[in-house]
Structures are given as structure tokens and as C-alpha cells.
Amino acid sequence: MRIAVVTDNLSLSRGGSECYLLSLVARLIAAGHEVHTFYNRGFDQIEGGKYYAIRPVRYPRFLREWDFCRQVDRQVRLLAPDAVLTVRPLASATHYRLSNGVHVRCFEAEREAFDSTLRRMFYRTGSRLNPKRQLLVRAQGRLLARVRRPRLMVNSRMAREQLREAFGIDPEAVTLLYSGVDLDTFRPAESGPHRKESLRLLFVGHHFFLKGLHCLMEALASEECAGLDLSLHVVGNGSITHFRRVAAKLGVSSRVCFLGSVPRADMPDLYRSHTILVHPSFYDPCSLASLEAMACGCPVITTEQNGACELIESGRNGWVVRHPRDIAALAGAIRKASVSGVAREVGLAAAATARERLDLRCHVQAVAKWLEA
Is 66 within 8 Å of 117 (Cβ atoms)? Predict the structure, then answer.
């Protein structure tokens, strides 16, 4: 099958959506499909595929999104593929995977996530003046309002329900498929998950506000966590300077270490060397970091705003709190995980869940079947 794939970024150093897509492209190529990938930024290419770097106009900036879509639509028509898979709104798409969910909901959550009242007050005005965001919101609305819209796929029940609420789309018309994980790469340590006596927490995400890093720091500063021997390692290219100030203000600087961007190849060992991944997100259709950590036997503490929570039964294979601002619940989950032997037992159950439900090979077969429909 000849498949056109469209994305903004083709880089493993970006977020989970980009890493997922590159894994999918690699597996589709390995399965014998002819894959043509159109992208704007990035350089991580999979051998055997065909790649098209789209360079939209640089100025005026508000035309970049429009010009990117215009160029891709034109080249896709010339290519005449059997399927056009996109993870962003595109008029020529035949299949649309909403990896990042409903844009309006994401931007609303981002506003809520900011710790500054003043910043929240001016967020909507700034968002309205942001041409890229406005184009994304309008393009998604137009695409999903079409009578003959593309086939839709989401990665959580949460995202599917948001499609119904925002656009009136029948859930039965939307394919639900959780993101797949390469279980040969992301797997528990051979001798069982290795855990030191101290509690080693891991946070992974580039958008520190949206992923709730400030809420996690508040939990570390709470009385519930005050007596625990713990440390937090932060992975991602977020606002490190600002969050160092947050940590200092809360008195947890000595417990927090910022690692910056970590090579993709090092992530499995990083998950395996930590006790828990804490992901108190304000919005995440289905966090890939959460799924990969589970596959490595590193249990996850997350929120109901992360679609990956649908795979977690609190206390059995992870922990789910209602909201990232529920600091008491977040700190309580960390304390529960600190009990001797609990994190190891819960981590083994998390890895079993990943083996049963997240195998990338099965996922790619399901995606290929969806593309053929």
C-alpha cells in the first residue's frame, strides 16, 4: 500500500506524538508498505522511506501554516497515494489520527495550568493573536465538520468523548487504539525492576506547565512527602530557569535535578532506574511516556486528564489522582509508592498490562487495517 504521512516535526527529540509517529513509519516500512513522509522540521529519517521537506514561506509568519498545508495538499495530489495519514488537520487527509486531541481543549488546559493569575488572565487574548493556534483550531473545526470527513482515530476514550462534546461526532464513528510501545526496547530489567532504597521520581515532558511539574514540586514540598528520602529527575526542554525558581521558592531545590533533553536511546534505562514516573498532566490524550514507563516496569502516577489513566487501576498497576492541583492526593500517591516493595509489585503489574495491551506489532497491524478500510 502506498501511504502518505504528514507531520510537522520529524524528530525523536520532540514529544511523544513525534516519537510514536516515527516508530509507526518504521514498522509500516518494515511490513512492506511504501511510505512517503511530508514534514516541516526535523531530520530523523527511517531507512527505506521517502521524505519530503516542506519549506513554507518564512514571512509573514501568519501564513506559514496555511502555506505548509497548501504545499502538502498539492504534492499529495500528484503522489496519488492509497491513504493519506495525518496527525494534524489537512484538507487532503483520508485518515486523521488525533494524537494531540482536540486543540481547543488543549489550549484551555494550558491556560488552566499556568501558576500565575495574571498569565491566565491574558492567555486567551494572546491565544487569539497567535496565528498558528488560530489556524490549527479553525482547520480542525472545518475538517471535522465536513460531511465527508476523513476516517478518525484517537488514542483514548477521553479523546473520543471530547470529539463528541466539541463536534457532535458519534463515538461509534471513531476508531480507538491506544499507542503502541516497542516491547523489545521498553522492557523491565532482566533481573526484575531494580529499585534503590531511596525513592527516585522521574518526570518526562517538554511543556512543564501543561504536564504539571509545578504541581509535582508542590507535592514534594508538602508534609506528606517531607520525611521521605526522595529525589526528582526532570527530563525535557521546558522552562528550566523558571522552574528552578519555583523549586527554590518551595524549598525543594536539593531534591530536584534537571537533566534537559535525553537521547531517545537512553530512555528505557532511565525508566528502569527510577522508582516511579510522575505525570500530573493537565491535558494529555494518551501520554506515550506513561506507556513506555509501564512497559519498563516503572509504575506511573498520573491524573484523570491523561488518557493513559484508562489503562491504570489505582493501587494495582499504577496510581491515578483526580486533578493535578489535588496536591494532597498527589503527595499521598507518592507516599503509597514509597512503602517497601510496593513500587516493585505495582511496576510488575504495569509491565504485564503493557505486554497485554500495548505491543507495537499488534498496534501497527491494526493501523494498517484501518488505513486499508
Answer: no
